[in-house]
Design a protein that fits this description.
Rossmann fold, 15 strands, about 425 residues
Length: about 425
């Protein structure tokens, strides 16, 4: 059978890095709880029909199957989850959640690829406020993102702000954009020439310098907003300014997904000479109505966890946590299983991290093995001492060893653990 592992371009999160992921996810969850957001875990398996139904909301719609949807051997037309917002909206509909206001967040893997250098599986977290079109909501979702990055100690972010118009003013803008694209089509790279035939907004996605220079001359939607959208953006700017939030108006913000309307934003960071988009989002009232069939104005944002953790690593934000107080149990013969398990059970009842070593055949080899473990205490279990009701304790914190009665082990360990926690 042919091996397709390299085609998927996936990676594993190894034990030396898992603690970083746990730390970041804990910060996110604690901040979301502070803002009264509830976690939702949508199924990783999704129906392809769900995303094909809303095809026009994706700017990659020309090659949706290759970029977004991965058919699982055509079993019930299933696909792996490519993004969070539509799956959250569909979950509200499917589970008949009729709350007037839903404040939800998610953390988990997504599956999408635009080129072979991207991971097929990546991880996102995101937040959605569904059921409010109040300008207060726009501010709150932006402030939530700012708070999460502050709590992660990622500073010097730039909030880029713009508007994606509405169903009244966007058609007129697209007419101007189409005219520009037609006039300059031959100047774009081959990939852009193909993409913009299907979706002129793709002109803003290309990273080629030549294409970027041309696209910067294109009409900006911010100059074609209707009166209501223009006023909405001005009020949002005033509120952010009054809150002391600095921002930059970027007229050329365009998401990979075209389901946004009015407020759109990016959080960018200049790092090692490159501009990285750490999070982006916006209002998606029309999409919410299309998916749920109800007038449910909504706004949200999402962020890439791989990128965030990579930047935190490079900025040396992570401080490796001190190992938990830990005990190693070293049986000195191969017929002490029952007493060893009883000892470990008692320590686990007292929430002490404990590890059992396998007997290696001799006292000397066991002593050598225990030296390889960064344990605070080594408990040697020998047949001779068990007959006396005792254990041999090697206290690595005080660099000495002593025999103690088995009945005193838990109290001895807990006193030592408590003393260390005070230091």
């Amino acid at each position: 059978m042919q091996n397709h592992q390299n085609d998927l371009n996936y990676h594993d999160i190894l034990p030396d890095d898992v603690w970083k992921w746990n730390y970041v996810e804990n910060v996110i969850r604690q901040t979301m709880e502070l803002y009264n957001f509830k976690e939702i875990r949508t199924s990783i398996l999704q129906s392809q029909e769900l995303f094909k139904t809303y095809l026009n909301y994706f700017s990659e719609h020309d090659d949706l199957t290759n970029h977004l949807l991965f058919n699982l051997n055509e079993v019930n037309n299933l696909s792996l989850r490519p993004e969070g917002t539509i799956t959250v909206l569909h979950s509200l509909l499917k589970n008949q959640i009729n709350d007037i206001l839903s404040r939800l967040f998610y953390i988990g893997p997504m599956f999408r690829r635009k080129n072979m250098t991207q991971f097929f599986q990546f991880h996102q977290f995101g937040a959605e406020i569904i059921g409010s079109n109040d300008l207060l909501t726009d501010n709150e979702i932006i402030l939530l993102a700012i708070r999460i990055f502050k709590n992660l100690e990622i500073f010097n972010l730039t909030l880029e702000l713009s508007s994606f118009g509405c169903d009244k003013c966007r058609p007129e803008y697209l007419r101007h954009l189409n005219q520009f694209v037609n006039d300059h089509q031959s100047q774009f790279c081959n990939e852009c020439q193909y993409n913009i035939k299907l979706n002129p907004l793709q002109v803003f996605q290309c990273v080629d310098d030549k294409c970027k220079n041309i696209s910067e001359q294109a009409p900006a939607i911010i100059n074609h907003l209707c009166e209501d959208c223009s006023e909405h953006l001005k009020r949002l700017q005033r509120m952010l300014s009054n809150l002391g939030v600095s921002y930059l108006i970027n007229p050329f913000i365009h998401s990979a997904f075209n389901y946004y309307n009015r407020t759109i934003f990016n959080f960018t960071l200049d790092h090692h000479g490159h501009k990285h988009i750490l999070a982006n989002g916006g209002r998606y009232d029309m999409l919410a109505k299309s998916v749920t069939g109800k007038n449910l104005p909504a706004i949200g944002f999402s962020a890439n966890l791989e990128l965030i953790i990579k930047i935190m690593d490079e900025k040396r934000i992570f401080l490796k946590p001190k190992n938990e107080f830990r005990i190693v149990i070293a049986p000195m013969s191969d017929d002490l299983d029952l007493i060893v398990l009883q000892i470990v059970q008692g320590l686990h009842d007292n929430k002490v991290h404990t590890q059992i070593l396998n007997y290696t055949g001799s006292f000397q080899s066991m002593q050598s093995l225990t030296d390889d473990y960064e344990a605070d205490v080594i408990v040697y279990v020998t047949e001779d001492m068990i007959r006396q009701g005792k254990l041999l304790i090697k206290n690595n914190l005080k660099s000495h060893q002593e025999p103690i009665y088995i009945a005193d082990l838990n109290d001895y360990v807990l006193r030592l653990k408590k003393a260390i926690s005070i230091i």
